[in-house]
Specification:
Layout lengths: L1 E3 L4 E2 L26 E3 L7 E3 L1 E6 L4 E7 L5 E9 L1 H22 L16 H6 L1 E2 L2 H4 L2 E2 L2 E6 L3 E8 L6 E9 L3 H16 L8
Helix pairs in contact: 1-4
Length: 200
Amino acid sequence: MSDLTNNPIGGPGNGGGGGGGGGGDRPQPMSHSPVSARVPERLSRGVPATGYLIAQSPKEILIDFVQAITRPQQVVARVVMSPVTAGEFATALQQNVEIFQTNHGPLPEASAAPQQPRPNVQEIYEQLKVSEDVHAGAYCNAVLISHSATEFCFDFITTFFPTSMVTSRVFLSAPNLPRFLASLKQTHQQWASGQRPPSA
């Protein structure tokens, strides 16, 4: 494993208390600040994604990162987070885009996709391969964002006591960022207003 020492967005500042003993002892609070995160060896290389799908329910927001250059197209990472974490993710990503533009200029534009009838969710997933190890998803309550001149890296993290841990690492090219950010913001706004996304 390796360690990340940047401070991720999101995540609680304090961990849960320990178990109490007899004689009326109260649980003692344990302080845990997510200032670093362990990176399991199997996740250290990360996965590149060329697309994404974002869905929401009353309790969580799900992001499927897709690799469309393979046949069949496949979901290479599935991340599950609370709507609160998703809102923090969107805010931090907007800030990172602004930093990117200051350092590297405007984000390059992705090539426009051919105009076709929009498939519904079921039709989309009928064309996607979702392996068993990806199907259950990786939970996160914090996200660490970094970028180069060509791509962004997302480290999705759990900040549970005693050690914060990276649960998924995904790379997305810079041209895909504007649409991804817009979709993330829209999904979070739909959740906040109690709206459900259309099925088609």
